């Protein structure tokens, strides 16, 4: 079996997590678990969902692949292209913009030598802008991995980038 | 500071069951389970609490209209908070999750439902973790499960994380998403109260609405009704963001003057009151109020409607005089264009057209007649009333409001190819 195929297999721990998720919904409504299972797949398969990953999820869920594709392409949190180890997402919506997100964007672009939507050659960072993250009273905000970083200044965001593992 | 419903959120470890219990937590549930479901609904009706997600529909009416003969009624909490400017539900989810859980169990009892889901936005990963921990605590202590508090009532509750789609905040799109589909709104009727999750009757309420329920049951509907002003009962969490000295979530009784909210709670406008340009009072999809209206308007459903805007989700976005209104609108237009689900052509096409015109005004390439064209799009050709959900109106309402209040700035962009402000 190739390395690629090996990587496209849920670990036992992930299968157990998926089984816990299925229990939240009526037995005949297993498809309800599609969004959470896609989240699990993205986490397990390197931060993004390839065609193979989507096909694997379809088989795992017992759903037609097309149903999985239409859901994966609808929601912005599913990455359909590879992303860096650290996916840095800057909110530029109104409250963040009023509180200086332009300077945060500039700082990140300069520091990471990336434009919005780009991934660094070493695969360490992807920089994106995102719409409102729902933490507006602590603007400006950057979302990296699972965490929000709030009340940022250019200096603070620069420091946060330096401290990422 | 008013702290009536959200009196615990500033306490240390307010998210834990121990702190919640020490402050009277879950006594409302005990009281509710000693009442009939109709009595519970009656209290909520008397309180006159209106949906805090933005639509303002009376919660008691929603609960009361649930069929009584069904065995598969469900309760869904809308925690897909994402209307730009709004971050009040996040406070409840992280600082007082047990109050939400208690409200949901009471709602389930009143609606004769045995299963509840909390649909939380995908980006709220840490918030979902905290909520799950609270649910686990509630199960272990018997507030959730097959036999809640040993009173024979069965109620199960689960968290469901979305994946980044603003439109899922619309209740029927949220239900589609919860069923594992694209989050596109459903045609109504039938409304979710009749045909909701898995085709069964479903109550969908916002986090803040459900979190107010334990207080209403404890103190009585009349107590809540007497807070606030007529037709706008109770308290509300306002998320004040933008150009104020102390942005934050503040609980106030409805009907408070906007000026008091900004000056006494949010630390005042940056650079002083006279530096105020305008306020978007209810989330990014409602029209902006110019400073002269902000002097006197009060924060309740009727007063804001009379002023030509809306209370919406209670997100108060403050703009000082350094802001170019055209640029601000361009920012919002891009958001709505991005978030249109594409199902209805007036919204899909309209949001693109409006964005294109506002963009060219902002970039100094505005054409004579563009401002009128925008107004036409908003008034007639625009998506207003022609779409399945309100997202389409979300793009035209703020633009129309901004032109009404600051038309000369839009015209200046056309005639001078640049901004008169910034």
Q: What secondary-structure arrangement, pairings included, does this model have?
A:
The complex is a heterodimer of chains A (165) and B (422).
Chain A: H1 3-7, H2 12-22, H3 34-44, H4 51-61, H5 65-74, E1 86-91, H6 94-98, H7 101-112, E2 125-130, E3 142-144, E4 147-149, H8 154-163
Parallel strand pairs in A: 1-2
Antiparallel strand pairs in A: 1-3, 3-4
Helix pairs in contact in A: 2-3, 3-4, 4-5, 7-8
Chain B: H1 17-22, H2 27-33, H3 37-47, H4 59-64, E1 73-79, H5 88-95, H6 97-110, E2 113-120, H7 125-140, E3 145-148, E4 153-161, H8 171-178, E5 202-206, H9 207-211, H10 213-219, H11 221-225, E6 228-229, E7 232-233, E8 235-242, E9 248-253, H12 258-265, E10 276-280, E11 289-290, H13 291-294, H14 301-306, E12 315-320, H15 325-339, H16 345-362, H17 370-381, H18 391-416
Parallel strand pairs in B: 1-2, 1-5, 2-4, 8-12
Antiparallel strand pairs in B: 3-4, 6-7, 8-9, 10-11, 10-12
Helix pairs in contact in B: 2-6, 2-10, 15-16, 15-18, 16-17, 16-18, 17-18
Describe what you observe in this structure:
The complex is a heterodimer of chains A (165) and B (422). Chain A has 165 residues and is α+β, with helices and mostly antiparallel strands. Chain A is built from eight helices and four strands; from the N terminus they run H-H-H-H-H-E-H-H-E-E-E-H. Chain A has a four-stranded mixed beta sheet, with helices on one face. In chain A, a hairpin with a 2-residue loop joins strand 3 (142-144) and strand 4. Chain B has three domains: 17-226, NADH-ubiquinone oxidoreductase 51kDa subunit (Rossmann fold, 3-Layer(aba) Sandwich); 236-320, Ubiquitin-like (UB roll) (Roll); 325-416, Up-down Bundle (de novo design (two linked rop proteins)).
